[in-house]
Design goal:
globular, 224 residues, alpha/beta
């Protein structure tokens, strides 16, 4: 395995994460699932993924998943302390992979980033914000829930700027642009520093997706 995706944890979060990345065209055989439960790994294998049974906080288990060769690592464990240890171990084995981790409590997010995670998703806070939004504005809550559900209705995606869009503003593109990724900065669509779009920019857009359709992945590397 090389340039594959390692997913630690095959619970609700892990399954949803895999479904999302596979909806963009990632092949199932390029996904390695690590979980301490043999039953979970059996389920992952029956779904077409490569499975490794074991404690992901142990380096020998992650080496069996060939984490040192992985392109991206998704950490979706049940406990926050486990997520921290897995992140530390994975980062020691692979300095270049993109690591995304989920935690239950927001207070643990900084610790995950210090441990080597590139991005941390707080599940409890995200669920709470969606609940509050749904109470204040049921329609807005429905839109957000639609965006979260992959593969139908509205989806959020990232794509490169095409030549025809170079020199235009984000508002002048055919898609609904939310943000512009320029280098390592994520700029709001109305940020005056954007000026006009450049060929090296990437766009975060909201698109309408029909059930069963796929968003074609873009393999062009991000600019340094």
């Amino acid at each position: 395995m090389r340039d594959h995706t390692v997913v630690v944890g095959f619970g609700t979060k892990g399954r949803s994460a895999i479904q999302t990345v596979c909806a963009t065209g990632l092949k199932k055989e390029q996904v390695v699932v690590v979980d301490p439960s043999a039953k979970a790994i059996e389920a992952a294998s029956s779904d077409g993924y490569v499975g490794v049974v074991g404690d992901a906080t142990r380096s020998e288990v992650l080496k069996r998943a060939e984490v040192h060769k992985a392109r991206q690592i998704i950490i979706a464990t049940q406990r926050d302390d486990t997520a921290v240890l897995v992140t530390l171990t994975a980062r020691q084995l692979n300095r270049g992979a993109k690591i995304v981790a989920a935690v239950r409590e927001e207070e643990n997010a900084p610790l995950l980033k210090q441990s080597g995670a590139d991005a941390v998703i707080t599940s409890a806070s995200a669920a709470g914000r969606l609940l509050g939004l749904s109470v204040l504005s049921p329609a807005a809550g429905m839109v957000m829930e639609d965006l979260i559900q992959q593969g139908s209705g509205l989806d959020m995606t990232e794509r490169p700027v095409i030549k025809a869009e170079v020199g235009r503003t984000p508002r002048e593109t055919d898609d609904l642009v939310v943000s512009v990724v320029r280098g390592h900065r994520v700029l709001g669509y109305d940020d005056p520093s954007i000026g006009t779009l450049q060929l090296t920019d990437r766009l975060i857009t909201i698109v309408r997706v029909s059930p069963g359709s796929q968003v074609t992945p873009d393999t062009r590397p991000l600019p340094e």
